[in-house]
Design goal:
alpha+beta, 2 domains, 3-stranded antiparallel β-sheet, 6 helices
Amino acid sequence: MATIIDLNAETRALCDADTTSYPAATLLRRINEAYERVVGWLIQADGTWEYDDSNYTDLPIGTQTLTEAQSAYTFNDKFLQILEVQVMDDEGNWRIIPTIDQKEIAGETPLSETYETAGFPQFYDKVTDDTIKFYPAPTATNVTLASGLKIRFKRTASVFTSAQVTTGTKVPGFVSTYHYILAYMAAIPYCMSYKKDRVGLYEKRVDDMKKELIDAYSSREKDTRHFMTNEGILFR
């Protein structure tokens, strides 16, 4: 297991650098960039087991209150991929809403016209990276507006902050065997400028660890996730 202090020390050691030649702000930025890349790999490779950074203390499920006749809803920018959208009906039952894309029905009547009368949403369309639109828009006659929208999602890494570097105890939220991949990844940009002879070696090391890490997560089962608490994510 490697803390952020360990990762910073290892990165500088790989570069023969110190706090002057490899400043804390630059190193933090590169560690976090590497961290988010690793999480992206794991999300794409998680197979039947849905990866989520173990530093989060809540489930990757967000809830939001619906608004009468409003079709578009914007969600938190940490969301990377929507897995499932549910709306609560007027009897308090959650119902899964299927996705639809206007592009898939080119030449047909626009969805906004087909479903211009508010009611219970039959479909949702992801119109931007952080916004979905319901067809038709919800209405209190057919849905429960208060906390009536639930989205299950995949999200990016719980990246390190400068304050956490000072505390020094936080660890990356993936299996500890591969924590030091972040140090190698953060060392490469520095070495590209100052230690070019090491770049190939470190890139090979990263590639080997990446393959092993993806293999490890591809074979994990859903029931191995045991670190979360039942708490929602706030929408903005």
